[in-house]
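Suppose you are handed only these lines of text.
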Amino acid sequence: MLIKRKRGWELGENRATPESVFLQRRSLVKAMGLGAAALALPAVASAQDKDPSAALYPAKRNDKYGVPTPMTAEKLATTYNNFYEFGTDKSIWRDAQKLEVRPWTIKVSGMVEKPFEIGIDDLLAKVQLEERVYRHRCVETWSMIVPWSGFPMRSLVELCKPTSGAKFVVMKTLSNPKVMPEQRDPLYPWPYTEGLAMDEAMNDLTFIATGLYGKPIHKQNGAPLRLVAPWKYGFKNVKSIVSVEFSDKRPATFWEKLQSSEYGFWANVNPQVPHPRWSQATEKPLGSSDRIPTLLYNGYGEFVAGLYADRKAEKLFM
Ligand SMILES: Nc1nc2c(c(=O)[nH]1)N[C@H]1C(S)=C(S)[C@@H](COP(=O)(O)O)O[C@H]1N2
Ligand SMILES: [Mo]
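From them, the structure of the protein bound to molybdenum atom can be written out as follows.
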Protein backbone atom coordinates (compact mmCIF):
# COMPACT_ATOMS: atom_id res chain seq x y z
CA MET A 1 0.00 0.00 0.00
CA LEU A 2 1.12 3.47 -0.83
CA ILE A 3 2.49 5.55 2.01
CA LYS A 4 1.29 9.09 1.62
CA ARG A 5 3.27 12.03 2.77
CA LYS A 6 1.43 15.33 2.89
CA ARG A 7 3.60 17.22 0.50
CA GLY A 8 0.95 18.72 -1.73
CA TRP A 9 1.85 22.11 -0.34
CA GLU A 10 5.15 21.88 -2.15
CA LEU A 11 3.28 22.35 -5.40
CA GLY A 12 1.66 25.43 -3.93
CA GLU A 13 4.77 27.47 -3.69
CA ASN A 14 3.21 30.58 -5.16
CA ARG A 15 5.27 32.86 -2.97
CA ALA A 16 8.29 32.06 -5.09
CA THR A 17 7.45 34.41 -7.93
CA PRO A 18 9.76 34.30 -10.92
CA GLU A 19 10.92 37.79 -9.96
CA SER A 20 11.99 36.74 -6.49
CA VAL A 21 13.74 33.69 -7.92
CA PHE A 22 15.63 35.85 -10.36
CA LEU A 23 16.44 38.43 -7.73
CA GLN A 24 17.71 35.70 -5.41
CA ARG A 25 19.80 34.23 -8.16
CA ARG A 26 21.16 37.61 -9.14
CA SER A 27 22.21 38.41 -5.59
CA LEU A 28 23.79 34.96 -5.31
CA VAL A 29 25.74 35.51 -8.50
CA LYS A 30 26.81 38.91 -7.23
CA ALA A 31 27.82 37.45 -3.90
CA MET A 32 29.94 34.89 -5.71
CA GLY A 33 31.68 37.72 -7.50
CA LEU A 34 30.48 36.62 -10.93
CA GLY A 35 29.31 38.89 -13.70
CA ALA A 36 26.09 38.88 -15.67
CA ALA A 37 27.59 36.31 -18.04
CA ALA A 38 27.15 33.64 -15.37
CA LEU A 39 23.42 34.06 -15.79
CA ALA A 40 23.58 33.05 -19.45
CA LEU A 41 22.59 29.55 -20.54
CA PRO A 42 25.77 27.88 -21.76
CA ALA A 43 24.73 24.22 -22.08
CA VAL A 44 21.22 24.64 -23.43
CA ALA A 45 21.91 26.00 -26.90
CA SER A 46 24.35 23.23 -27.78
CA ALA A 47 21.99 20.51 -26.50
CA GLN A 48 19.43 21.82 -28.99
CA ASP A 49 21.93 21.87 -31.88
CA LYS A 50 23.16 18.35 -31.16
CA ASP A 51 19.66 16.87 -31.09
CA PRO A 52 19.26 14.49 -34.06
CA SER A 53 15.82 15.93 -34.79
CA ALA A 54 17.09 19.53 -35.00
CA ALA A 55 16.46 19.73 -38.76
CA LEU A 56 12.70 19.20 -38.25
CA TYR A 57 12.39 22.63 -36.59
CA PRO A 58 11.00 25.22 -36.81
CA ALA A 59 7.66 23.71 -37.88
CA LYS A 60 4.91 25.62 -39.67
CA ARG A 61 2.66 27.50 -37.29
CA ASN A 62 -1.00 26.49 -36.93
CA ASP A 63 -2.96 29.52 -35.67
CA LYS A 64 -6.37 27.79 -35.61
CA TYR A 65 -6.50 27.88 -31.80
CA GLY A 66 -5.37 31.48 -31.56
CA VAL A 67 -2.00 33.10 -31.09
CA PRO A 68 -2.12 34.53 -27.57
CA THR A 69 0.26 37.32 -26.59
CA PRO A 70 2.62 38.32 -25.11
CA MET A 71 4.92 35.40 -25.66
CA THR A 72 7.00 34.46 -22.60
CA ALA A 73 10.74 34.92 -23.06
CA GLU A 74 12.48 31.64 -23.90
CA LYS A 75 14.96 32.18 -21.11
CA LEU A 76 12.17 32.39 -18.54
CA ALA A 77 10.22 29.38 -19.79
CA THR A 78 13.40 27.30 -19.82
CA THR A 79 14.80 28.33 -16.44
CA TYR A 80 11.65 28.35 -14.31
CA ASN A 81 10.30 24.80 -14.37
CA ASN A 82 8.42 22.15 -12.51
CA PHE A 83 10.11 18.78 -12.97
CA TYR A 84 10.05 17.16 -9.54
CA GLU A 85 12.20 14.22 -10.63
CA PHE A 86 15.14 16.65 -10.64
CA GLY A 87 14.20 18.58 -7.52
CA THR A 88 11.34 20.39 -5.90
CA ASP A 89 12.40 23.93 -6.70
CA LYS A 90 12.02 25.84 -9.95
CA SER A 91 15.70 26.05 -10.87
CA ILE A 92 16.32 22.44 -11.97
CA TRP A 93 17.11 23.29 -15.61
CA ARG A 94 20.83 22.74 -15.19
CA ASP A 95 20.41 19.33 -13.50
CA ALA A 96 17.95 18.31 -16.21
CA GLN A 97 20.76 18.51 -18.80
CA LYS A 98 21.84 15.07 -17.49
CA LEU A 99 18.75 13.51 -19.02
CA GLU A 100 19.77 11.40 -22.05
CA VAL A 101 17.10 11.73 -24.73
CA ARG A 102 18.59 9.28 -27.25
CA PRO A 103 17.96 6.43 -27.63
CA TRP A 104 14.41 7.00 -26.42
CA THR A 105 11.74 4.33 -26.65
CA ILE A 106 8.03 4.73 -26.05
CA LYS A 107 6.18 1.60 -24.99
CA VAL A 108 2.57 1.26 -26.14
CA SER A 109 0.52 -1.21 -24.11
CA GLY A 110 -2.80 -2.12 -22.58
CA MET A 111 -6.01 -2.15 -24.61
CA VAL A 112 -4.46 -1.92 -28.08
CA GLU A 113 -4.68 -4.22 -31.09
CA LYS A 114 -1.02 -5.14 -30.59
CA PRO A 115 1.43 -3.76 -28.02
CA PHE A 116 4.62 -2.28 -29.51
CA GLU A 117 7.59 -0.05 -28.87
CA ILE A 118 8.67 2.85 -31.01
CA GLY A 119 11.78 5.06 -30.95
CA ILE A 120 11.29 8.80 -30.81
CA ASP A 121 12.86 9.39 -34.25
CA ASP A 122 10.65 6.72 -35.86
CA LEU A 123 7.66 8.38 -34.24
CA LEU A 124 8.74 11.82 -35.47
CA ALA A 125 8.97 10.40 -39.00
CA LYS A 126 5.33 9.25 -38.86
CA VAL A 127 3.73 12.50 -37.79
CA GLN A 128 3.28 16.00 -39.19
CA LEU A 129 4.95 18.59 -36.99
CA GLU A 130 3.37 22.00 -36.46
CA GLU A 131 3.81 24.90 -34.08
CA ARG A 132 1.08 26.09 -31.72
CA VAL A 133 1.26 29.04 -29.35
CA TYR A 134 -0.60 28.02 -26.20
CA ARG A 135 -1.31 29.49 -22.81
CA HIS A 136 -0.08 27.42 -19.85
CA ARG A 137 -1.60 27.82 -16.39
CA CYS A 138 0.10 26.16 -13.42
CA VAL A 139 -2.11 25.30 -10.47
CA GLU A 140 0.31 27.38 -8.37
CA THR A 141 -0.99 30.48 -10.27
CA TRP A 142 1.97 31.30 -12.52
CA SER A 143 1.34 31.19 -16.24
CA MET A 144 3.16 31.51 -19.54
CA ILE A 145 2.54 31.66 -23.29
CA VAL A 146 4.94 29.54 -25.34
CA PRO A 147 5.32 28.19 -28.88
CA TRP A 148 5.25 24.41 -28.73
CA SER A 149 6.11 22.29 -31.74
CA GLY A 150 4.73 18.82 -32.04
CA PHE A 151 1.71 16.93 -33.28
CA PRO A 152 -1.89 16.32 -32.23
CA MET A 153 -2.29 13.70 -29.52
CA ARG A 154 -4.90 12.20 -31.85
CA SER A 155 -2.12 11.16 -34.28
CA LEU A 156 -0.43 9.24 -31.49
CA VAL A 157 -3.67 7.56 -30.42
CA GLU A 158 -4.38 6.50 -34.01
CA LEU A 159 -0.91 5.06 -34.35
CA CYS A 160 -1.44 3.04 -31.14
CA LYS A 161 -4.71 1.47 -32.41
CA PRO A 162 -6.61 1.22 -29.13
CA THR A 163 -9.43 -1.30 -28.97
CA SER A 164 -13.04 -0.11 -28.64
CA GLY A 165 -13.13 -0.80 -24.89
CA ALA A 166 -10.36 1.71 -24.12
CA LYS A 167 -11.69 4.69 -22.18
CA PHE A 168 -8.51 6.31 -20.87
CA VAL A 169 -4.96 6.87 -22.01
CA VAL A 170 -2.31 6.76 -19.30
CA MET A 171 1.12 8.32 -19.82
CA LYS A 172 4.23 7.93 -17.69
CA THR A 173 7.58 9.66 -17.34
CA LEU A 174 10.91 7.82 -17.54
CA SER A 175 12.15 6.05 -14.41
CA ASN A 176 15.85 6.63 -13.87
CA PRO A 177 16.81 7.42 -10.28
CA LYS A 178 20.49 7.71 -11.30
CA VAL A 179 19.72 10.77 -13.37
CA MET A 180 16.56 11.90 -11.58
CA PRO A 181 17.59 12.04 -7.93
CA GLU A 182 14.14 12.70 -6.44
CA GLN A 183 13.03 9.32 -7.78
CA ARG A 184 15.10 7.81 -4.95
CA ASP A 185 12.52 9.24 -2.55
CA PRO A 186 10.13 6.29 -2.17
CA LEU A 187 7.37 8.38 -0.68
CA TYR A 188 6.49 9.87 -4.04
CA PRO A 189 4.39 7.63 -6.32
CA TRP A 190 6.97 7.44 -9.14
CA PRO A 191 6.92 7.31 -12.05
CA TYR A 192 5.01 10.53 -12.72
CA THR A 193 1.72 9.34 -14.20
CA GLU A 194 -1.04 11.28 -15.91
CA GLY A 195 -4.06 10.39 -17.96
CA LEU A 196 -6.83 11.67 -20.18
CA ALA A 197 -10.24 10.33 -21.07
CA MET A 198 -10.25 9.07 -24.64
CA ASP A 199 -12.38 11.95 -25.96
CA GLU A 200 -10.03 14.43 -24.31
CA ALA A 201 -7.05 12.74 -25.95
CA MET A 202 -8.80 12.92 -29.34
CA ASN A 203 -9.72 16.61 -28.97
CA ASP A 204 -8.14 18.97 -31.52
CA LEU A 205 -6.41 21.00 -28.83
CA THR A 206 -4.58 18.10 -27.18
CA PHE A 207 -0.96 18.18 -28.26
CA ILE A 208 2.24 16.20 -27.89
CA ALA A 209 5.12 18.67 -27.77
CA THR A 210 8.50 17.63 -29.14
CA GLY A 211 9.76 21.16 -29.74
CA LEU A 212 9.75 24.57 -28.08
CA TYR A 213 10.71 27.99 -29.49
CA GLY A 214 11.34 26.47 -32.90
CA LYS A 215 13.85 23.89 -31.67
CA PRO A 216 13.79 20.39 -30.20
CA ILE A 217 12.20 20.69 -26.78
CA HIS A 218 14.52 21.50 -23.91
CA LYS A 219 15.25 18.71 -21.44
CA GLN A 220 13.90 20.72 -18.52
CA ASN A 221 10.62 21.15 -20.39
CA GLY A 222 10.14 17.42 -20.91
CA ALA A 223 12.28 16.23 -23.81
CA PRO A 224 11.88 14.40 -26.04
CA LEU A 225 8.08 14.43 -25.78
CA ARG A 226 5.50 15.72 -23.32
CA LEU A 227 1.79 16.23 -23.16
CA VAL A 228 0.22 19.68 -23.59
CA ALA A 229 -3.47 20.03 -22.63
CA PRO A 230 -3.70 23.83 -22.31
CA TRP A 231 -7.19 24.02 -20.78
CA LYS A 232 -6.04 22.01 -17.77
CA TYR A 233 -3.70 22.88 -14.93
CA GLY A 234 -0.06 22.41 -15.84
CA PHE A 235 0.46 19.27 -13.79
CA LYS A 236 -1.54 17.25 -16.34
CA ASN A 237 1.22 17.88 -18.87
CA VAL A 238 3.40 14.86 -18.14
CA LYS A 239 7.00 15.23 -19.33
CA SER A 240 9.55 12.87 -20.91
CA ILE A 241 7.01 10.16 -21.74
CA VAL A 242 8.14 6.52 -22.08
CA SER A 243 4.82 4.74 -21.66
CA VAL A 244 1.43 5.15 -23.30
CA GLU A 245 -1.13 2.69 -22.01
CA PHE A 246 -4.83 2.32 -22.84
CA SER A 247 -7.27 1.26 -20.17
CA ASP A 248 -10.95 0.98 -19.38
CA LYS A 249 -10.18 2.30 -15.89
CA ARG A 250 -9.40 5.82 -14.84
CA PRO A 251 -5.81 5.91 -13.57
CA ALA A 252 -4.77 7.36 -10.23
CA THR A 253 -2.41 10.15 -11.18
CA PHE A 254 0.77 11.35 -9.45
CA TRP A 255 -0.63 14.39 -7.66
CA GLU A 256 -3.95 12.73 -6.99
CA LYS A 257 -2.12 9.94 -5.16
CA LEU A 258 -0.17 12.47 -3.10
CA GLN A 259 -3.05 14.77 -2.24
CA SER A 260 -6.42 13.90 -3.76
CA SER A 261 -8.21 16.66 -1.84
CA GLU A 262 -6.20 19.23 -3.81
CA TYR A 263 -5.31 17.68 -7.15
CA GLY A 264 -7.81 15.64 -9.11
CA PHE A 265 -8.00 13.80 -12.38
CA TRP A 266 -9.89 16.36 -14.50
CA ALA A 267 -8.02 19.49 -13.34
CA ASN A 268 -9.72 21.89 -15.75
CA VAL A 269 -8.84 25.54 -15.18
CA ASN A 270 -11.64 27.51 -13.51
CA PRO A 271 -11.10 30.89 -11.82
CA GLN A 272 -14.27 30.39 -9.75
CA VAL A 273 -13.11 27.21 -8.08
CA PRO A 274 -10.35 27.95 -5.58
CA HIS A 275 -7.65 25.52 -4.65
CA PRO A 276 -8.29 24.56 -0.98
CA ARG A 277 -5.39 26.81 0.05
CA TRP A 278 -5.48 29.71 -2.45
CA SER A 279 -7.63 31.49 -5.01
CA GLN A 280 -7.45 30.59 -8.69
CA ALA A 281 -9.10 33.85 -9.80
CA THR A 282 -5.93 35.45 -11.11
CA GLU A 283 -2.52 34.43 -12.36
CA LYS A 284 0.95 35.88 -12.70
CA PRO A 285 2.49 35.62 -16.17
CA LEU A 286 6.19 34.68 -15.96
CA GLY A 287 8.22 37.85 -16.29
CA SER A 288 5.38 40.16 -15.31
CA SER A 289 4.76 41.77 -11.95
CA ASP A 290 1.01 42.20 -12.58
CA ARG A 291 -1.65 39.59 -11.99
CA ILE A 292 -4.23 39.05 -14.74
CA PRO A 293 -7.64 37.35 -14.56
CA THR A 294 -7.64 33.60 -15.12
CA LEU A 295 -10.11 32.36 -17.75
CA LEU A 296 -12.47 29.39 -17.60
CA TYR A 297 -10.77 26.46 -19.35
CA ASN A 298 -7.77 28.80 -19.55
CA GLY A 299 -9.57 30.56 -22.42
CA TYR A 300 -10.11 27.40 -24.50
CA GLY A 301 -13.79 26.79 -23.69
CA GLU A 302 -14.92 27.02 -27.31
CA PHE A 303 -12.82 23.96 -28.12
CA VAL A 304 -13.28 21.84 -25.01
CA ALA A 305 -16.36 22.80 -22.95
CA GLY A 306 -18.43 20.22 -24.87
CA LEU A 307 -16.28 17.42 -23.46
CA TYR A 308 -17.80 18.02 -20.03
CA ALA A 309 -21.50 18.46 -20.84
CA ASP A 310 -22.24 14.90 -19.69
CA ARG A 311 -19.75 14.93 -16.82
CA LYS A 312 -21.31 17.54 -14.57
CA ALA A 313 -21.32 15.16 -11.59
CA GLU A 314 -17.52 14.90 -11.70
CA LYS A 315 -15.06 17.18 -9.88
CA LEU A 316 -14.13 18.85 -13.15
CA PHE A 317 -12.16 21.81 -11.84
CA MET A 318 -9.77 20.29 -9.36
N1 LIG B 1 7.32 14.22 -15.14
C1 LIG B 1 6.88 15.40 -14.73
N2 LIG B 1 6.04 16.09 -15.50
C2 LIG B 1 5.56 17.31 -15.09
C3 LIG B 1 5.91 17.83 -13.83
C4 LIG B 1 6.81 17.06 -13.02
O1 LIG B 1 7.19 17.45 -11.90
N3 LIG B 1 7.27 15.87 -13.50
N4 LIG B 1 5.39 19.04 -13.39
C5 LIG B 1 4.15 19.48 -14.03
C6 LIG B 1 3.78 20.84 -13.69
S1 LIG B 1 3.17 21.12 -12.14
C7 LIG B 1 3.84 21.85 -14.61
S2 LIG B 1 3.25 23.41 -14.27
C8 LIG B 1 4.49 21.65 -15.92
C9 LIG B 1 5.63 22.62 -16.08
O2 LIG B 1 6.15 22.58 -17.37
P1 LIG B 1 7.35 23.52 -17.78
O3 LIG B 1 8.45 23.31 -16.79
O4 LIG B 1 7.72 23.12 -19.17
O5 LIG B 1 6.82 24.93 -17.71
O6 LIG B 1 5.00 20.34 -16.10
C10 LIG B 1 4.19 19.30 -15.55
N5 LIG B 1 4.74 18.00 -15.91
MO1 LIG C 1 2.13 23.18 -12.28
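What can we learn from it? Residues 81-85, 138, 173, 192, 221-222, 234-235, 237-239 surround MTE (ligand 1) (CB under 6 Å). Residues 289 and 307 are 34 Å apart (CA to CA).
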